[in-house]
């Protein structure tokens, strides 16, 4: 009787196992799921950081009508104090902006000309990014640093993912990953010791010339920023200007 | 007979491939690198087309990164009914060397990251200069020259060559909107 039961179980069990096993042992599928797990772990770690500063050295490409591909350099600095304080400085050869968010107001300044604008805005950093984008068309580069690990309809689901291998970035041993989604490929170098992204490369595959945005990220954890870091105090030389709503700017 | 069937089959295949829907180029985000990882089609798509590296702004299509949000690009120096909005910047303030081709941007300024601007700075001198009549609501991305600053009800205005402008921020770009005398 016991043998009969065992035999039945084996007989029932084996076809099921045979159906399940091929996808589990598909190397590509395993590799993809490992890469996505690594991205998820990094995202969870980013979510857990209350306060950090990131300095990004960026190369951004632009492709022109005759196929000329040019590179432009810029520097992005973030100072973050969760849940609701953010400072961003964006500096290129042709443009310099500082963005202040203290949980009450969003302020953008143009330090070289002294123009600044400010509008009431509340919420978390993530909510700020959404409001600033939807209402005013303000796009903060590398905002994935704040969106990863959250439910976000704008974040693409990778159709492909792969661990490329080891890579040393300055003092940081990292693992280099590749991800593919509709219209965008990206590569992330995740620190083996600190589980932080040390390099990010975003390839625009909607343009056949595939312009790239590449950023090396330098992290400072727990920088203990002062409260004044996130609030802009205009001097007498600063000139207030209005912030044009997205729909007004688009309608004209 | 066999040959004819094969030909018909090939013709059918070719026909099918030609009939396949081609992804509309206009819906793509082309030209610029993406500065964050996002799905291509948002609820409010902000697509961009490639810009022309060599074309002069007068002929330039309104192709900014986001033409839908930067509708005025390419319309600088537009001549309307004999009147011209003069945006005659002093090019030497920001540039050295020959300005002819516009590739001598060797100083930092604050004019957005549009390096075509040197071409746009050639003064739009036409017969209408003396009695310039700017169009209310017209938008410029370069700050006009020879401006006097004025503050009215906490808002900054510029009075430049007989035209009032209100500097505004659109996204993170400066825009100068032609307005009526605020006083």
Descriptive notes:
The complex is a heterodimer of chains A (252) and B (183). Helix content of chain A is 27%, strand content 40%. Chain A is an alpha+beta fold and 252 residues long. Chain A starts with a helix and ends with a helix. Chain B is of the alpha+beta class. The longest helix of chain B is centred in the N-terminal third of the chain and has 18 residues, at 2-19. Chain B is elongated and about 45 Å long. The relative contact order of chain B is 0.12. Chains A and B meet through β1, β4, β10, β12 and β13 of A and β6 of B. β13 (242-243) of chain A pairs parallel with β6 of chain B.
Task: Report the end-to-end length of chain A measured between terminal Cα atoms.
Answer: 84 Å
Number of helical segments of chain B?
2
Radius of gyration of chain A: 23 Å
Poorly predicted spans of chain B? 11-26, 56-109, 116-131
User: How many strand elements of chain A?
Assistant: 13
Number of helices of chain A: 5
List the helices and strands and how they pair.
The complex is a heterodimer of chains A (252) and B (183).
Chain A (H helix, E strand, L loop, with lengths): L1 H24 L1 H22 L2 E13 L5 E13 L3 E8 L3 E6 L3 E6 L4 E6 L4 H12 L7 H4 L12 E10 L2 E10 L2 E8 L5 E8 L7 E10 L17 E2 L1 E2 L2 H6 L1
Parallel strand pairs in A: 6-12
Antiparallel strand pairs in A: 1-2, 1-11, 2-3, 3-4, 4-5, 5-6, 7-8, 8-9, 9-10, 10-11
Chain B lengths: L1 H18 L59 E2 L2 E2 L32 H4 L18 E2 L6 E6 L2 E6 L2 E8 L2 E7 L4
Antiparallel strand pairs in B: 1-2, 3-7, 4-5, 5-6, 6-7
Write a short abstract of this structure.
With 252 residues, chain A is an alpha+beta fold. Chain A contains 5 helices and 13 strands. Chain B has 2 helices and 7 strands; from the N terminus they run H-E-E-H-E-E-E-E-E.
